[in-house]
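Hello forum,

I keep getting stuck at the same step: I have a sequence, I want structure tokens, and every attempt I make locally crashes halfway through. Rather than fight my setup again tonight, could one of you with a working pipeline run this one for me? It's a single chain of 116 residues.
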Amino acid sequence: MQDLRQELLSIYGIGEETADDMLLYAVGRPIFVVDSYTQRIVDRLGVERVKIFGISGEKPYGAYQDLFMENLPLNAKLFNEFHALLVRLGKEVCKKRNPLFNTCPLQMVCETGHAE
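Reply #2:
Ran it on my machine without issues. Output:
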């Protein structure tokens, strides 16, 4: 799978998220897709492991991806469902602006929601 991912990444315009989308959703390979919703939720939860910044000041995509891939069974169907749930939570509750902390199912374990 790593060879196929590298081949996709070598194509102009395809980044990590797009390559992983293709591998998970089109090919059915067990790789966790990281998007802005995933990053926002993980950041707000205060997960220590991804508080590492890259050279550009951005948190590396791989830090988020490793968090899920090392702690969940390598299962494409599970990754698909887990990612879909994160997207829904990010769109409906853990919004970029005006998040609904009081209705969040993760409030009790959320560093940011607990502070509100």
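Residues 32 and 82 are 9 Å apart (CA to CA). If your local run keeps crashing, start a new thread with the error log.
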